[in-house]
Write a structure and sequence with these properties.
The structure holds 2 protein chains of 2 kinds.
Chain A lengths: L4 H9 E4 L5 E4 L2 E5 L3 H10 L10 E4 L20 H14 L2 E3 L9 H7 L8 E4 L13 E4 L2 H10 L1 E4 L3 E8 L8 H12 L7 E6 L1 H5 L2 H9 L8 E3 L4 H7 L8 H12 L11 E6 L6 E3 L7 E3 L12 H7 L14 E4 L7 H11 L9 E4 L4 H9 L2 H8 L1 E3 L20 E4 L14 E4 L2 H10 L11
Parallel strand pairs in A: 3-4, 3-6, 4-5, 6-7, 9-10, 9-12, 10-11, 15-16, 15-18, 16-17, 18-19
Antiparallel strand pairs in A: 1-2, 2-8, 13-14
Helix pairs in contact in A: 2-3, 2-5, 6-8, 12-14, 12-15
Chain B lengths: L5 E4 L1 E3 L7 H4 L19 H4 L23 E3 L12 H9 L3 E4 L4 H9 L3 E4 L2 H13 L6 E4 L4 E3 L4 E3 L4 H9 L3 H6 L2 H14 L1 H7 L1
Helix pairs in contact in B: 8-9
Classes of the chains: A alpha/beta, B alpha/beta.
């Protein structure tokens, strides 16, 4: 019997197995951010714990740092400064790298990890943040953890994980030119449910995944946690290797040759067996949008809302929409492009191609927050900032920004917002704010029209 | 950590599916770099009807019958969303010792175990039967969770649940996982020494 990619990665890192089938796994890299990393480090400091390998730990400030243009290293969240100050203090105390707001390497953890070559194929990488599964797109075994597990990883350089079942989702068929990996993954969640991968590791494969660029794959794996997967992973190929090559923390010279040869071997064997093996034809998928308060409450932009059901009564009430109502044409008050899901250079380029020469409806507050300083600098070098600004978007500094509400600035209560983010939970973007998740292109096109719109029109 | 052997208490039958950690504790309630004092922020968005923290009578926990609840009953995909361990800290700080659900998000499940909160998984019909029984008289219809026997009991019924041996052992003994793992430190160091030869490309970068 052949091995799956996940089994190979696990084997490479397995320090020991326990009688109950769980394994102690070596952790190669740990990422931290101020919101949860500060809590873990602070607790370790007070308990006199040591960090086993400080050089393998990378931290940044992304969650609650202000993203207003020209911001200093502050938080506008009431009490937020505590987290930023504490992150600086404890990172220094432990001697770990911290990319603060004034550093050109600062940004959202899951954006800077591949960008800086911290997330590499074949490694294990964890972070006290649920969207760490994003990094599976690099061919890394990457997963989100809580604070206690984070302290465990920092102190012992290992984590204990149970056995997981394995699922492969092969994406096949001809991808329409306007179809994004965001539409695909929202479609999967709405089709199978927000809990369908509980207890599974998912490997995304198939011709459509092979055709995707790395940044599209990062979006696909990012949403793995939104259907309850332990993590998502994609086998590294020539695109992954070329993407990683030459990045600051990627191997150099002779080491790079050895590493790249190793990475190329990290694929599921042809005779590997999966507990669930699905094939999904993407050619019939239309632009997707969420209508409710879970990522599984999603429909094609040209569909109508579902029937009333007892378990959906509160959802309809919160979002202020009725059963069988069309989603297209719903007036919006806000638009946001950013987050670990869709804030990379290619996301901004695609959104800018829609916005070029057009204007956002004047009553809409539209914001773009690049995922990292590097993304922002690159975008400005090619003039994307001007396109966003001329269209009526605010152009912010790098960070998680308006993806979630922590008590700082946000959209007005009760407003309807279209957003390139990952969660449409009740109150996620602010009290009473109704979030509709979509691709950056759909966000841009809807902002131009002042209402939820079918992005295919923009390509006609 | 306090060992968990058994617990008897009032159950709160919310039964919601996909109840996420943002709902359990909203981000703005995470005000300190600490694990304690979070009970006031528990369910803040649905528990209070305004900024002055006036209890919303619509929310079940605010009903006098459920004030002392220590067993939370949810539906599928419990604790999905953010990895924030504050969700479990807030539940534990309020007094919750058990979460019963149809299925759990994996990070939330681990966070429960790490903090002495017992996660119990049962099928939908059992959960509904238990919730119906609790609702008849919440103040006297207590549930009893027994981790040694792996049962959740009402007066008339006993439901067996499955929990991973590791989680069960950690909860029963109140184990601190870091110290447990550090008993294998020699093994870990040997593994790393070997790995440094095998994957020199990874170590040369970081050190």
């Amino acid at each position: 019997m052949g091995q799956t990619l996940y089994q190979k990665l696990k084997k490479l890192h397995e320090v020991r197995q326990f009688d109950d089938g769980s394994s102690l796994i070596l952790i190669d890299r740990i990422m931290l951010h101020e919101r949860t990393g500060s809590v873990a480090l602070s607790n370790m400091l007070s308990e006199n714990r040591n960090i086993a390998a400080p050089k393998t730990v990378f931290s940044t400030i992304d969650h609650i740092v202000d993203t207003k243009p020209g911001r200093p290293d502050i938080s506008r969240m009431p009490g937020g400064m505590v987290f930023i100050d504490e992150m600086h203090r404890v990172s220094k105390a432990f001697g770990i790298r911290l990319y603060g707001a004034d550093d050109d390497r600062q940004g959202i953890v899951h954006v800077i990890a591949p960008e800086q070559g911290i997330a590499l194929p074949g490694i294990t990488i964890v972070c006290p943040d649920s969207h760490t599964c994003t990094l599976g797109a690099m061919g890394a075994l990457a997963w989100g953890i809580g604070s206690t597990d984070c302290e465990h990883a920092l102190a012992t350089r290992t984590l204990r994980i149970p056995q997981f079942k394995q699922m492969r989702i092969r994406l096949t068929g001809k991808k329409p030119k306007w179809l994004t990996s965001k539409d695909v993954v929202i479609n999967l969640i709405s089709r199978f449910g927000a809990d369908f991968a509980t207890g599974f590791v998912i490997e995304f494969a198939g011709s459509v995944v092979e055709e995707m660029e790395i940044e599209e794959r990062l979006t696909l794996c990012n949403m793995g946690v939104e259907f309850a997967a332990f993590t998502a992973i994609i086998a590294p190929d020539h695109k992954t290797i070329e993407y990683a090559r030459g990045r600051p923390f990627a191997p150099k010279g002779e080491d790079a040759l050895i590493a790249e040869a190793h990475w190329a071997s990290l694929v599921s064997d042809i005779n590997a067996s999966f507990d669930v093996d699905l094939e999904v034809d993407v050619s019939e998928i239309a632009p997707m949008i969420t209508w409710g308060t879970s990522p599984e409450h999603a429909i094609s932009v040209d569909e109508v809302l579902p029937d009333q059901r007892s378990d959906l009564a509160d959802v309809f009430k919160y979002v202020g929409l009725r059963p069988h109502e069309p989603i297209r044409g719903q007036r919006i008050d806000g638009a946001f492009i950013g987050s670990c899901t869709n804030s990379r250079l290619s996301d901004l380029r695609r959104a800018a191609s829609i916005l070029k020469g057009r204007k956002v409806k004047s009553e809409i507050r539209a914001i773009c927050a690049p995922g990292s300083k590097e993304v922002k600098i690159s975008a400005e070098a090619e003039g994307l900032d001007k396109i966003f600004l001329e269209a009526g978007f605010e152009w912010h500094e790098a960070g998680c920004a308006f993806c979630f509400y922590a008590g700082g600035e946000t959209f007005s209560p009760g407003s309807r917002v279209i957003s390139s983010t990952n969660r449409n939970f009740e109150g996620r973007q602010g009290p009473g704010v109704c979030t509709h998740i979509a691709s950056p292109e759909t966000v841009a096109w809807s902002a131009v029209n002042g209402q939820i719109s079918d992005v295919r029109e923009a390509y006609e | 950590m306090k060992p968990f052997t058994n617990h008897i208490g009032v159950a709160l039958p919310l039964l919601a599916d996909n109840l996420n950690t943002d709902v359990i504790i909203p981000s703005r309630e995470m005000k300190r770099v600490s694990k304690v004092g979070l009970a006031n922020g528990l369910f803040a968005n649905i528990r209070y009807s305004d900024g002055n923290r006036k209890p919303d009578p619509e929310f079940l926990l605010n009903h006098p019958n459920y004030h002392t609840a220590s067993i939370l009953i949810l539906g599928r995909n419990a604790g999905c969303g953010s990895s924030r361990e504050h969700a479990v800290w807030a539940l534990a700080d309020y007094g919750f010792r058990v979460v019963l659900a149809e299925s759990f998000a994996s990070i939330f499940y681990n966070n429960c175990v790490a903090n002495g909160v017992l996660p119990i998984t049962l099928d939908r019909s059992s959960i509904e039967a238990i919730a119906d029984w609790v609702r008849i008289d919440p103040t006297s219809h207590h549930l009893s969770a027994n981790l040694e026997k792996c049962t959740l009991e009402t007066v008339d019924n006993s439901f067996e649940f499955v929990i991973t041996p590791l989680a069960r052992r950690m909860l029963l003994n109140g184990l601190a996982p870091i110290d447990l793992t550090l008993e294998d430190k020699v093994l870990i160091d040997c593994f790393i020494a070997e790995d440094m030869r095998e994957r020199q490309w990874l170590y040369s970068v970081s050190d």
